[in-house]
């Protein structure tokens, strides 16, 4: 009897997954774009200063005892880009991608234009949605974070980081686009290098910032679709193009 | 002697204004667009619920004693769109433009694409920057507001309202664009009608929202340039266009 109950549960799960997949495909199939459904990563133990600590060796974050930041730090060493995991890993740029894939099972997508579909936007802060994006011969990391900068007022922050040096990052422009309910919001900027730390980009607010009500307007059934495009930089002629 | 001192002061003022004007022209002349330098409007007496009171007749704002909102309210009556002035005026849609021009000296600009140059962004909240924009046979009101939704954290909110009915407003799309320092932020939406109240649009956050650090990145010498374009609405095909 238990076996049949379990089977029935599994079938229900499959139907649900199939429905979710169909829904995602239905929404974006018209554009013929690659859609990646990204599930959230939630952790009660939040260590926002992990990366700052790695950069300055004077961070006040709660670091695991085996995280030897007191030692002289190699500036080319990147701490793990999943701060919510409180992962003590550090490594050189060349091995960041394999660490993120193997240890944290972060998906990697190919293509110049993709759609990032973040599910369960209602989950409490802090929550991260992360994917890697392989494009133009480089790997980028898209981080969407729900965080309470002001207590009781969660906001969403989205940014793109190049898994490379700041000089390499200057060669690219990324675009994040939200489009729903007769509203469109576009953010274009030069990606930061993962050496610069995602936490400081978000705390500076130098990224796409959404308050909860705007995130709800752009969401469909608790999922937020963000169109992503990466191009090689042209010279920004700020004034002439306005 | 006093006369000469005053003359000297006036000459200095003229030089300063000429410099400001030249600076604005220099920045945008390449695009051949109309630039409107908009000075802020600051008031210590802030009555954010003025409009809500006008809509519901149950507002709790500090209203002047001669503001008879207890009476049955004509839904087509628009309270004055300059809440910071605490102006008790109310009138029908047809006379809103002349009231704003004559009583509050709000500029009106012609053209499908203009640049709104808000000066003195550093002024403390609450502060408003307002212009009217005449385009496609209608008048629109652009409101940029600096407000502290969360105490100690001022934010900037920009929205466009049609001086017309909600049905008329549905025929248009407005775009606000910031472009500087290798960053670009675009907001596109259907304008709201002035009958709907600018305060509620801003408190809902259903507009372009900028935190202070992002506003600084987009500013030049304390002035923020916002490119404005208005078009007649096409059917928004949210998914296909992403």
UniProtKB/TrEMBL annotation, chains A, B:
<dbReference type="Pfam" id="PF21361">
    <property type="entry name" value="Sina_ZnF"/>
</dbReference>
<dbReference type="GO" id="GO:0031624">
    <property type="term" value="F:ubiquitin conjugating enzyme binding"/>
</dbReference>
<dbReference type="GO" id="GO:0061630">
    <property type="term" value="F:ubiquitin protein ligase activity"/>
</dbReference>
<dbReference type="InterPro" id="IPR008974">
    <property type="entry name" value="TRAF-like"/>
</dbReference>
<feature type="domain" description="Seven-in-absentia protein TRAF-like">
    <location>
        <begin position="134"/>
        <end position="228"/>
    </location>
</feature>
<keyword id="KW-0833">Ubl conjugation pathway</keyword>
<dbReference type="Pfam" id="PF03145">
    <property type="entry name" value="Sina_TRAF"/>
</dbReference>
<dbReference type="InterPro" id="IPR004162">
    <property type="entry name" value="SINA-like_animal"/>
</dbReference>
<dbReference type="GO" id="GO:0005737">
    <property type="term" value="C:cytoplasm"/>
</dbReference>
<keyword id="KW-0863">Zinc-finger</keyword>
<comment type="pathway">
    <text>Protein modification; protein ubiquitination.</text>
</comment>
<keyword id="KW-0862">Zinc</keyword>
<protein>
    <recommendedName>
        <fullName>E3 ubiquitin-protein ligase</fullName>
        <ecNumber>2.3.2.27</ecNumber>
    </recommendedName>
</protein>
<keyword id="KW-0479">Metal-binding</keyword>
<dbReference type="InterPro" id="IPR018121">
    <property type="entry name" value="7-in-absentia-prot_TRAF-dom"/>
</dbReference>
<comment type="similarity">
    <text>Belongs to the SINA (Seven in absentia) family.</text>
</comment>
<dbReference type="GO" id="GO:0008270">
    <property type="term" value="F:zinc ion binding"/>
</dbReference>
<comment type="function">
    <text>E3 ubiquitin-protein ligase that mediates ubiquitination and subsequent proteasomal degradation of target proteins. E3 ubiquitin ligases accept ubiquitin from an E2 ubiquitin-conjugating enzyme in the form of a thioester and then directly transfers the ubiquitin to targeted substrates.</text>
</comment>
<dbReference type="GO" id="GO:0016567">
    <property type="term" value="P:protein ubiquitination"/>
</dbReference>
<dbReference type="GO" id="GO:0043161">
    <property type="term" value="P:proteasome-mediated ubiquitin-dependent protein catabolic process"/>
</dbReference>
